[in-house]
Amino acid sequence: AQSVAQPEDQVNVAEGNPLTVKCTYSVSGNPYLFWYVQYPNRGLQFLLKYITGDNLVKGSYGFEAEFNKSQTSFHLKKPSALVSDSALYFCAVRENTDKLIFGTGTRLQVFP
Amino acid sequence: GAVVSQHPSRVICKSGTSVKIECRSLDFQATTMFWYRQFPKKSLMLMATSNEGSKATYEQGVEKDKFLINHASLTLSTLTVTSAHPEDSSFYICSARGTARGYGYTFGSGTRLTVV
After folding, report:
1. What are the pLDDT digits (tens) for A94-103?
2. For chain A, which has fewer Cβ within 10 Å, the N-terminal or C-terminal residue?
3. Which of B4, B42, B112 sits opposite A104 (nearest CB)?
């Protein structure tokens, strides 16, 4: 079965500094990977996805993620964090059955 | 872009009553809809997958008689929590996927259910 792991419950970063939210995956076959963000009491908003092609994927709100096959990772990054980026971030993988399986989430806190 | 409308956003009900949550795709046909439950420690648990016109497929451990899912049209899926108990209190989120939208999944804004 496909799965993703988010090893950090929380990531703290100062505003203006680069941020990284980690995700590793375990799949059979080609991975379809996603990042979503969730604000309090809201649904999930799509940030970006990797299906095929360039390993560096650019997404919404200045976020990007790098697909690394050898390390089975798909870390989310942003060059300069904003306080408004503070939210809950989920990595997900699409199963062959079309289901999205989520990681446990990482809370990003950006301090002014 | 693709929009999924989920209602209500919040609901409080008494133990033993039933609650219906609606999920509508507003600008695309959702051939598949997914229902998730989010626990207080934030993880999202897939409850079931529904395809238009057919019975929902429930994940292991999810009571199909308690969480009734109907996907009667290409734009509407409903989740009914029957005979609700306080332990059913949670945040429920739907997600829709249409064949014409590549590999995109669009999420509703969620429903906070509180059973008292």
Report:
1. 887 788 889 9
2. C
3. B42
